[in-house]
Amino acid sequence: MQLSYRPRYSIVIPVYNEAENLAELQRRLSAVMAQLDGPTECVLVNDGSRDTSLAQMRQLRQQDPRFCYVSLARNFGHQIAVTAGLHHVRGQAVIIMDADLQDPPELIPEMLAAWRSGFAVVYAKRRQRRSESWFKRLCAYGFYRVLRQLSDVDIPTDSGDFCLLDRQVVTALNAMPERVRYLRGLRSWVGYRQTAIAFERDPRYAGSVKYTFRKSLKLATNGIVSFSQVPLRLSTYVGLLAACVAIFMVCLILYWRLFIPNSPLTGFTLILVAIFFLGAVQLVSIGILGEYVGRIYEEVKGRPLYTIGETAGFETISARGRL
Ligand code: UDP
Ligand code: MG
């Protein structure tokens, strides 16, 4: 079964082991899609799930031709899964949301209203994160503010990937060749008229968090390294500071030696502290440098962003070229 019309709205949903959520997701999405004033497609991106998610997607597709799917050949991570979805969507307005129903689909009509009034990017801003642990809330709070300070691009705080993008923005994002993708930043980088809608982020409908601490840390590092060069300069500043401290200490030692007999200073401890301090500064600097060099290496390899196992619902694309 094929859609015989070109969808006006597209919804991209990355899915990684979300079998328990898909039925409820379909139920709530169908209710929302029924209210929309134009044809809608829903692009599910299977990010290498190991549960029955893919089988459920095939079934969903059979029941409702508005659901299409792209199945990646392995787990490539959330940001790449969304990117794969953006490469496939055909709508004029594209909504990105999670599969765990933490992003309420009922917000979509409100986002579309803002889009119709002329905004190219409508992002959802979390009012509260009651459902998450205090540690995660603290990290997120700190991270968004540090990133904002460090970055030249105005990246809004407390907004995740739940957003609406105009076709113009999707085209701009799809033209970006970079492999390390921090979509929240790229979305701000493109410019255009942007606005926020505040919302309460619900707890997960079912299943466990797929963004492990390691994945979150990687996302945060990618965000900072992709959008700021301040960490690179940091080592220069710390180096200068260490030089000032060293000069001050030389003066202090000279003063003690020349004017204070039997000074309490023991050279050994001082040297040890200095060695440890400078060693630490140097290692951290090399580490920071490594983060950037690693990304250059990643980009230079020029591998494709992802590999696709199977797709369904995009046959019209290959027949007629990209819509
Ligand atoms: N996800 C994904 N690949 C991954 C990890 C997560 O596609 O490697 C998807 C997941 O299925 C969900 C969304 O990304 O739809 C957000 O994940 P999660 O709910 O675990 O993160 P959080 O809500 O804590 O940001
Ligand atoms: Mg979630």
Automatic annotation (TrEMBL):
Question: Can you provide one Gene Ontology molecular function annotated for this UniProt record?
Answer: glycosyltransferase activity
Subcellular localization, per the record?
Answer: Cell membrane
Membrane topology recorded in Swiss-Prot or TrEMBL: Multi-pass membrane protein
Q: Which UniProt keywords apply?
A: Cell membrane, Glycosyltransferase, Membrane, Transferase, Transmembrane, Transmembrane helix
Signal sequence extent = none
Q: Where is the Glycosyltransferase 2-like domain?
A: 10-170
State which residue ranges cross the membrane: 237-256, 268-293
As recorded in UniProt, coiled-coil segments are none
Highest taxon in the source lineage: Bacteria
This protein's GO cellular component annotations are: plasma membrane
Q: Does the keyword Cell membrane apply?
A: yes
Q: Which PANTHER family match?
A: PROPHAGE BACTOPRENOL GLUCOSYL TRANSFERASE HOMOLOG (PTHR48090:SF1), UNDECAPRENYL-PHOSPHATE 4-DEOXY-4-FORMAMIDO-L-ARABINOSE TRANSFERASE-RELATED (PTHR48090)
Q: Can you tell me which family this protein belongs to?
A: Belongs to the glycosyltransferase 2 family. GtrB subfamily.
| The name this protein goes by in its record | Glycosyltransferase family 2 protein
- Natural source organism: Romeriopsis navalis LEGE 11480
